[in-house]
Amino acid sequence: MFKEETKELKMSNEFRKKIEMICKFACVKYELINGNIISIKNTNLAYVKPHILKVKGNDYLLFEDSNIVFINGYKDKIMLIELEKHLKNS
């Protein structure tokens, strides 16, 4: 069996504040969870688990250097600038 090594991704203060402001303007209760990098020892395989914004039973997957937000997996996506509107309407 392979052994995994997990390292927490720290969210920058600037990005955290941006997401928190979007949630406050949308008037929603939220939980923001830091992502991880999961590496499999003795291989060159790694998986980046994104930061997760939990709102009203939905998981919004956030990558700090991306303007795309994935909703409940990687099938549905919106632009970060549309997140506030999406949160208000969901």
Strand and helix layout:
Elements: E1 4-8, H1 13-25, E2 31-33, E3 36-40, E4 46-49, E5 51-55, E6 58-62, E7 68-71, E8 76-79, H2 83-89
Antiparallel strand pairs: 1-3, 2-5, 3-4, 5-6, 6-7, 7-8
What does this molecule look like?
- The chain is α+β, with helices and mostly antiparallel strands and 90 residues long.
- It has one domain.
- The protein has helices spanning 13-25, 83-89; strands spanning 4-8, 31-33, 36-40, 46-49, 51-55, 58-62, 68-71, 76-79.
- It has a five-stranded antiparallel beta sheet with strand order 2-5-6-7-8, with no helix packed on it.
- A hairpin with a 4-residue loop joins β7 (68-71) and β8.
- The mean pLDDT is 94.
Give, in order, the helices and strands: EHEEEEEEEH
Structural class by helix and strand composition: alpha+beta
DSSP, total strands = 8
The shape, in one word, is elongated
What Rg, in angstroms, do the CA atoms define?
15 Å
Proportion of residues in β-strands: 35-45%
Helix content: 10-25%
How are the strands ordered across the major sheet? Answer: 2-5-6-7-8
Task: Give the tally of structural domains.
Answer: 1
Main sheet characteristics: 5 strands, antiparallel
End-to-end separation: 42 Å
Q: For the residues shown, what is the average pLDDT?
A: 94
Specify the number of helices: 2
Low-confidence runs of at least 5 consecutive residues: none
